[in-house]
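U., I forgot to send this yesterday:
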Amino acid sequence: MHELEEYRQPYVAEKRPLPSPDALTEDLTIFDYDDMDAASKNMPDDPSRAPIANPNTASYNHARQSATSYFLTESDFSRIGASKEEIEQFKTLKNENEKAELFANIALAHPQNWEFRSSGRIPNWALYDGNPIIIDQAFRTYGENFTTYDKARLLTTRATSLKAEKQAEPEPSVTLKEENGKVELTGFNPPPYQTSANGCWSCSMQMLLQSQGYNFSQEEIRSHRPTHDNRSRKQLMKMEQRVDKATKTTVNTPSTEFEQSKFAYDSNTGQEMMAHAEAISGMAKNSLLHETEIMKYEPEVARKQGITREDYLKHAEAFCRKQILHALRNDHSPVSMLRGGHYITVVGIDENNHILYKDSQKDQNKTYEMSLSSLINPRINGATSVKMFWMSKIQLCKDKTSIYGIPTEDLKMDTDGRMIVTGESTRNYSHMMQPGTSVNGRMIQRNNGWNEPFGAPELFTDGGIIKNEKVYFPKQVDAELLKQESANLSDAEHEKLIRQSQEMFNVHPGMQTDTEKYSRDLDSLNREKQKLDREDKISRIEDMVKNGKQDVIANPSSKQKKAEASLQSLMTTALTTEIKNPTQSTRNMQILFAKALLIDNYAKQNKLPASPAALNAEAADLRNKLSLDEYPDSTLQSFLSDRQTLKAAGNILIGDTYRVPDERMSSYVNQMKEVARSMMPKEGRTQKYIDFYDAVQNVVKAGTPNENGLVDSEAVKQANIKLMDKLDTYISGKEKVRFHTDGQKRFANALDALSVLGLHAPGLESRVSDTVKKINTAREAKSVKNKDFVDISRFGSERARKEAPKEPSKTAEKTTQKNAKQTKALG
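Result:
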């Protein structure tokens, strides 16, 4: 009989009895705790009171010093695929730990020889536990009866647990790159292919872990197990008996969510990432595993919300993009997604919504590309859903209790480092976060993106898509390290993390769910941000004045001389203005400064305002656009102290409003080109549309790189000022355009341009939002279920591309040329 065949035969005799469910407690009492310290000796029964900071040190120290025999033989090494050199190396070893380490390394290199084979001789309390001391006890008690496969399974788990405990502080090796509208994580070092029939999940998880700075092989990931306390260890043996209706036989079935998840560790079938969450958290200290699921399109549900299938797919794609960008940019994590029944790993996305991904069924050293819609639409249109998984680091707020970057404000860390759920909303509302457990960690789930605790919403968020968001918190975190990192956060870093939490999850970490308090604190945060922005701008103005030179107009014209005189008069007035009414004084000073900026610009352009009334109206508009009410009179007066300071202030304030950041410039210009290509011709149109049309073309022209491949950002800024002005003029009075097809197309062109502008110029986000709000108010469309509601996220370059005139095919061109020749021949 072949060596391997021997171990496939039914087990007949055993030297020592295997444990039964009834004997579990007795088995636990025979553990040898003599060489363990008190921390391991007193493992609590209550999982919520599990030790937190580096809890298993004593167990791992015990494992390192253990004199346990692992009953390893030359035959065992041969069966798992050891080379002759490795077998000879084994023969020279005397230390049992060294033998176990060598055996585990060889087994992990040849998983096909042992993985997912079981003799049934390993007790559950050892088979599903990653604590080395528990594994050692299993060997001391039953090791003589273990097969080669049993030894391989237990010793690979043991080795992986030791590696996880010994690993140094994470050093992420991946790099985020953003260029030409593409966002991508690079620097991964995955194996070419998966080594298990259904091991794609472990290959994808390997890259998620690597992005956080933790390097484990796909085989180690499949081998690793959670570390249990006594209470959960006892649960491993509890099974609920039931009668199978089909076979009329009594079978054992899992009775808890925990027991169901443990079977994921013992099968080579399709895997759910979350079933492995606790084991993964043991490999990546102080990390979270996230899952977002978008449910399939349900006509009956969607119809009640007034959402068409086409709209649902568009919003689902937009949300997937938003989620992928959040994971890539903020958490520096790729995203695992299912394609059919196979996990791929999304490492990037471009401006055209094409994802860049790795595939363990092809060659993971290469990067592949496909459209996001082709990945998600079949699932949403079919009988399944879209799931996205990614990882992030736990980041504790400055209050040392709340967590950044998760979809709830109700999960806190107490002084002992335990995660606790607070707030009535979390417990009492089905659409809120639902507490649950997986092993000893905590699974938190939110349905449909809604955070309001005082009643169910009329509509779901993100355009009405039905989605579930989950986050898994490990049972063990290094609380002291989290608190230390929290204390070291700068105000700027805190502000950034708060904003990210708001943008992705619409939550504010550290705030209570009380709506009024939320609003008050949010207003306070916004005021603080305005203050910091204002101080930053003033500092930059001072630097520009210190290092800059005053412009002098050579041989000024009469218009320019007149403008210069008006400007000088305004500056003098600003320094001597004394109005008794403080409110009126403040507004007058703001208008005064706005007029000065405008007159200075008129002088440069060799022209004058149409009339004093026109100048006043333009200044009032500029006052609002530049948020001048944020600056006190004294500051505005200082801006008007001389021509050089005025110039610096104008450049900073206007530039920050209309400027496109360098990292977004390529994407902005490319998207505006799509808008330009889709626009209706300007011939025969109103002057307002012609001006708007020309303004879009002007942006594209200004954004064209020069011979050195560089874009003049100042020219783009000036083009944006003109475009926003022409958009305001064109949209004004046309808010209700929606029924006439031709007019609707031109109005949609304007919304496309508005969307692209607001997306790429951060200073214009609030202004774009105000414009859209004005349109919906005029249309009396308060929610997305109103057919006239304008959702600006549905407009932009993608919509413009689809609406652009199609290029004539080569066949059509040849036919046209042929017809032209025939016509010419006929005279």
